[in-house]
Design goal:
Layout (H helix, E strand, L loop, with lengths): L1 H32 L12 E7 L7 E7 L14 H14 L3 H10 L14 H13 L9 H13 L1 H24 L9 H6 L19 H6 L14 H4 L1
Antiparallel strand pairs: 1-2
Helix pairs in contact: 5-6
Length: 240
């Protein structure tokens, strides 16, 4: 009985050694015949493991273990919350319509009302307009209607003027660059204030659209794409 136990133990040890040898030989022969697959510089690394399932039998099951490709990692980039909020507010400011409506009403309502403003006497306004006239090819002359508009801004529309001056810092450099390229007086940039109050989405009651208030036919004439989904008259760069 004891002798039988010794033989069984020896048999178990022989089987274990054979399985280990089989695994080692199989892996070594695999490396020799499949060198191109065992390459740590490749994107995907494949390892073949050999397991002996039956004692003293040469049938070997191959189990393929695949690692994840190094190029399959996806990085999710997120906006910084404060910067995203500031961008959102700035885009909203660029597309506001209230100033356009205010200026549009003022331009079409030029009834002169004689009022006395102690902060800007008429003679002072005339002198300032004369200084501007010396620096521009346009004829900047005094008229009662012009004085009415200027004083209306000074008295009732200071917030609108502040917003216009702020937004102009964004649009005017682009206007001036394009105007200078075609040798057009830089003062033409102020036309966009009268036309749209620097609102790229402004649209008049007759259909004129964008910073420069192009009609449909005018936009087409200048090669702007205008259809049911796109209106490049509202694109500041394309329209300019």
């Amino acid at each position: 009985m004891r002798l039988l136990q010794i033989y069984s133990l020896l048999g178990f040890l022989l089987v274990s050694a054979f399985a280990k040898a089989q695994d080692t030989l199989s892996y070594e022969s695999f490396k020799k015949t499949n060198k191109e697959r065992v390459d740590l510089k490749r994107d995907t690394i494949t390892i073949i493991d050999s397991i002996t399932t039956t004692s003293f039998v040469n049938e070997i099951n191959k189990i393929e273990l695949k690692t994840m490709s190094r190029d399959s990692i996806v990085f999710k980039l997120e906006d910084e919350p404060l910067a995203a909020r500031l961008d959102s507010l700035w885009r909203k400011e660029l597309a506001r319509m209230d100033i356009y409506d205010t200026i549009n009403n003022m331009v079409h309502d030029l009834d002169y009302k004689e009022e006395v403003y102690l902060d800007l006497p008429t003679d002072t306004l005339k002198k300032r307009l004369a200084l501007i006239n010396e620096r521009t090819p346009f004829n900047v002359g005094y008229t009662p209607s012009l004085e009415s508009v200027i004083k209306r801004y000074l008295k009732r529309h200071k917030p609108s003027m502040e917003r216009l001056m702020e937004v102009s810092q964004f649009y005017f450099p682009m206007f001036e660059e394009t105007l200078d390229k075609y040798d057009i007086p830089l003062e033409m940039k102020y036309l966009a204030i009268v036309e749209s109050a620097l609102r790229p989405r402004a649209k008049s009651r007759v259909g004129a659209t964008g910073l420069w208030q192009f009609m449909f036919s005018t936009g087409k004439m200048y090669g702007l794409d205008v259809n049911s989904y796109v209106d490049e008259r509202m694109d500041p760069i394309m329209a300019t």
